[in-house]
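Students often ask why we bother encoding 3D structure as a string. The short answer is that it lets us treat folding as translation between two languages. Here is a chain of 527 residues written in the first language.
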Amino acid sequence: KEAELSTRKAIELNPGFAEAHSNLGNILKSQGKSQEAKEEFIEAQRLDPNNLNYCLQNIFCLSPIPFNREQIDIERSNLKVGISRINQNNKIEFKDNIINESIFLLAYQNCDDDKEILEALAESLSNVKGILNKSFNKEIYIKENNTRKSIRLGICSDYLNKGHAVYNWFWNILKDISSSSEIEIIIFEGPDSKNEIDRECINLINGEIIKLPSSSKKGCEVILSKSIDILIYLDIGMSHYTYLLSLSRLALVQVNALGHTNTSGSPNIDYAFSHLGDNFIDNNQYFTERLIRFNRIPINYSIPFSSDRDFKRSDFKLPDDSYLIGLPHSLFKLHPDFDNVLHQILHEIPHSYLILPEGSDKYFTNKLKERWKGNSDLLISRSLFYPRVNLDDFNSMLKIFDIILCPFYYGMGNTLYQSMAVGTPVISLESKRFSSIFTSVVYKQMNIKDPPVAYTTGDYIDICKKLAFDLDYRKRLSEEIFYKSRETLFNDVNIYMEYIQFFYSALEAAKNGSYLPYNWRCPLKKV
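And here it is in the second language, the structure alphabet:
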């Protein structure tokens, strides 16, 4: 509030101060006031139309809690127009300040044109003077690689902090690669990185960690100076800084690890890792990168630790016979299309309640409640928002839920593993969006006999009802998930071998001036 008052005072003193309007927009956006923020971004761009940052702030002012599909379509249409205008403006400037906008929310809107938008954005930004680094020399890099006995692997991430999904998915893989092969690992983190990697962790991978400068131009130069053979971006789309880096060629082979599930859109990212096996045939419908298919889910996920806290229904002031439906997700994952199905579930299971976390900002909770009030009285009267808890307590809380609903379209990742660890069934709906398939892939790897996976909204509701009223089925399924997850899902200490096979194969192809074929699969080898 103090920042907002001070910034408004600056604008009062100098209404033509574009930076103050931009800052006020960011303050309002952080409070969830998207429309008010949009007005400030428009004014900043009007005052300084050739400032790239103001252009991006304006066009990427997307609503994290949209009211309906129409709002999503309008905002995306405006985004496309804004990207086109950037491409047409040959006076636009990149001043090498930190761009505050990311492509994060696109993946949650369930639209078929993500790839189209991200390709157009990458092309537009690549044409802006000063963004691309063009000093990569392939011949020199090949020569340096040939003088070394080991592969030099670069890892670029802003989210390798303990407890985060990116850390849980990839950290053990890095340790396994380092301890079992002659591969050097260098981790690059952006200036605003949330990483909490300490020296002990770095020693575990016998690697190096480099904090990149605030200037993305200088960040590119730092990475180039390390002569990286293979550069893996763990979380493109979650960080504006690493996204800018991904537009340039900084290594012989560059990979999108899909810590965030959208394509990068960048022509300089060669490959994307896929966990979907034969369940999803892309044919470049969703990705600009070539998919690399692993034979198992390419994760070595440790079994999550739960606290000793014992959650009870009385903690939510609910009777003991209540059927608790967990929605333990960030609220922006709840697509408007999901609302009617949630209403139907509550209507057909009279003793059921939805349990959700409060939003990271109070505004998000209020916005979702406002949307629900317009759609269903049941969603308001039979939903409980609990205060956010620490990670260990969160894992313990998952035990009290009778079922957990996988949100439509985007699906689950980190929370899915945490749910499997405590044996709580997760119900999912497979859709055309590839991220929605992940839950069924997990069940398939676990060899669950009758997995709660639906292919229509009607099936989805019926599975919820079956688990609510058939207690024997729910008990059998829960026990099967609990035990089989320990046998087949967690602590995959051999999957790193497929990574290493990919490294050598992709590097050899790059040195020969080619690529691995689309949907390349790691050859199976006996462990």
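Translate back mentally: Residues 69-88 form the longest helix (20 residues). Keep this in mind for the problem set.
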